[in-house]
User: What shape does this take?
Amino acid sequence: MDRTLTLLGIESSCDDTAAAVVRLGKTGPEILASQVLSQTALHEAFGGVVPEIAARAHAERLDGVVEDALAAAGVSLDQIDGIAVTAGPGLIGGVLSGVMLARGLAAARGLPLVPVNHLAGHALTPRLTDGVEFPYLMLLVSGGHCQFLLVQGVDRFVRLGGTIDDAPGEAFDKTAKLLGLPQPGGPSVEAEAARGDAKRFTFPRPLMDREGCDMSFSGLKTALLRARDALVAEKGGITVQDRRDLCAGFQAAVADVLGMKTSRAIDMVGARPTALAVAGGVAANKAIRSVLETVSAKAGVPFLAPPLRLCTDNAAMIAWAGIERLRAGLSPTMDFVARPRWPLDDRSPALLGSGKKGAKA
Ligand code: KG4
Ligand code: ZN
Assistant: This one.
């Protein structure tokens, strides 16, 4: 690398409108600014992300968020070397909002434009935060995604397995809803679980007897619903302690499944990966983190968890993926389409199902 590279990143594939400026200099990468404007409040009343509302909000807010990011970074468009934008997978209206803005800016300024796969953004984040070398194993666990990826290069990903139905974050959110806890469900279920007895209710650990590292979380939610209804039938309602115990049992089941399947994924890689890295909102869960840490320690693989603001949706990861692509000699282009579905690994079979936060890739 003989010169610094400063990219503007734009992300609008789900319910966060985000822009960031990332610079790669002689001493390594630096996030000059990363702005994320959440739409949670706009969708709250609907119990999930409404694609039309999301698309409109992105279209209305993107310019402002980009301006804020440039101002916070202290750079003007003249000092930007290129623009990276999420071109999929995600809610197509939102993706299009970002792509149109990026295309317009790039054309007007004569800047190179780099279309980025949102999942590649997540998957390359450990290189931005920790400079990890290829190949490493990535567990992406959020409200919309759940998959194991072997990251072999900037543009080389092997999908080892993933959920065949719900994503774990979705299961946490549904559990919270069933138990009358606030959204997002992950943090509220975790807080209840901390004071509960995980052994009182035993929930299923699906697909344990199936080879590989595919997972299923939809049955867990049904089991929880049955346990709750049984308590209601028995005593007319659930107590505070019942709720804590249900949360603890649920969380233990998710953590167990993720732990066991992570161990399988490490075995599937063959040669030892340089690290096990996590991304996605669910990676914030302390019980899950601790299980993953134990599993990687046992396998002798370093465990990496980027800071939460870079684990959840953001545009710094998109700018960084753009820098990685340019540095690897992959050409920027204006000639691409926005894609609702875009698997990182084209050889892996398409997954069924679509999470509350959009299409699963
Ligand atoms: O990555 P993210 O911010 O957005 C996408 O899904 O793309 O992840 C949000 C998900 C939500 O489903 C939320 O309930 C879950 O991550 N989550 C958690 C925790 N914090 C957030 N799940 C379990 N434990 C947590 N502490
Ligand atoms: Zn994401």
Notes: The chain has eleven helices and twelve strands. Confidence is low (pLDDT under 50) at residues 352-361.
